[in-house]
Structures are given as structure tokens and as C-alpha cells.
């Protein structure tokens, strides 16, 4: 939080306001036509002593032409009028329940996990559809990386599978994430996935883990890369020869 405050000039309350304006898991749409960039610019320009959550509540109760109190610069005043013009489409903005959830103290119990079973795709999908109204595509984008992480780090050793075991297709390309060498990996579509039309899934996995677990895929990937380089070299040489032949005519 200190880094966010220092680098972005956003306090905790401004971060909550940002989530309400631009959208978050609790209110995915946010305020229509606002977006991340406009919300960020608006919040950065507000003085630190402004009670932003109270201000949003006040804006929600004002008419569009009186949305700003005149104490702020012209850009900020226009933005608050823009907020006011769209808030009327929303019910119960800003939602007190969402604000309370953000402000609720988080406590992490000290629990030792003896065995970690593979995350259940079907159970997670059912829960998030029922509780959060996530789309199936979004659910898969969140749960499948957890499934592959468990599979690569625990499943190949413990074998504590629940449901369908993920099947790796191959390495798509090499990447670096947060300074760590990684692969973008293709996985076969799960038979349990009856909700989307995906032909395969993509995840980013650490290179070291894939190299140790699937050395044959690493070799296949390197062979494919070398083959592609050779083809490009042949194409370049052909283009050069073709260009010279045209000049000699």
C-alpha cells in the first residue's frame, strides 16, 4: 500500500473509489463511460484531505449541473459532472456493502495443509456462477492456471486428482515474466468444459518446471524453433537471389 501511495498518489480510500468507478470483482462494470484512465486521472488530482467516498455519495445525490462544488479545477469539475450524468443509471451508488467489504479487516488463519488436492473445475465454476455471476470464459481464465500449477508442482508427485487431469499439448513460445524465464504452454481442452468453445487453453509456466517435468516437450520446442530459423534463412537467401536476378535483367 505504501508503494501505491508513493508511486501513484492513491490512498486506500482512493483505491476503493477507483474500484467503484472503473469496476472490480464486486461491480465489474463500474460507472459507464468512466474507465480506468479517467478514474485514475480524476483521483490523482483530488487533494489528499478530500473524503472521496463521501464526495462520491454527494455527487450521486446532486443533479448533473451542480455536480461539482467549484473548489476544484476545471478538469476535475467536468469529470464530476460526467460521473453525475452516468450515476443516475446505477442503483445504490456508491454501494455501502462493497465499501464495507473493502474496509473489512482481513485475517489469515495459520493453517497447515497436509494434502492439497487438485482444484475442482466443476465446483469452482458452479460456485462462481452462483455467487459472483462470472462468465464461463472468465472462470476458466482464473481456475485453469491454478489447476496447471497444482498439476506441475504437486500432481505429478502426489497424484491427488479430483476430476479430469490436465493434458499438456506443447510449448507455444518462450517468455519472461517478472524476470523469470517462462513458457507459454498449450493444454488440451477439458472434457468437463461444456460451457465454452475453446479448442485449447494457454497458460504461462516457469521454464525450469516444464523442462524438468516434460523434457521431451522442451526438445520438440527447440527443434521447432531451429526449423523455423532455417526456413527463414532459406527465405531470406531466396529473396536476395530473386532481387539480384531482377537487377541483372
From TrEMBL:
Family of this protein: Belongs to the XPG/RAD2 endonuclease family. GEN subfamily.
Coiled coil: none
Highest taxon above the source species: Eukaryota
Species per Swiss-Prot/TrEMBL record: Soboliphyme baturini
Gene Ontology molecular functions: 5'-flap endonuclease activity; crossover junction DNA endonuclease activity; four-way junction DNA binding; metal ion binding
Protein name: Chromo_2 domain-containing protein
GO annotation (BP), single: DNA repair
InterPro entries, per database record: 5-3_exonuclease_C_sf, GEN_chromo, HhH2, XPG/Rad2
Keyword check for Nuclease: yes
Keywords: DNA damage, DNA repair, Endonuclease, Hydrolase, Magnesium, Metal-binding, Nuclease, Signal
Taxonomy of the source species: Eukaryota, Metazoa, Ecdysozoa, Nematoda, Enoplea
Keyword NAD tagged: no
Cofactor(s) the record lists: Mg(2+)
PANTHER family on file: FLAP ENDONUCLEASE FAMILY MEMBER, FLAP ENDONUCLEASE GEN HOMOLOG 1
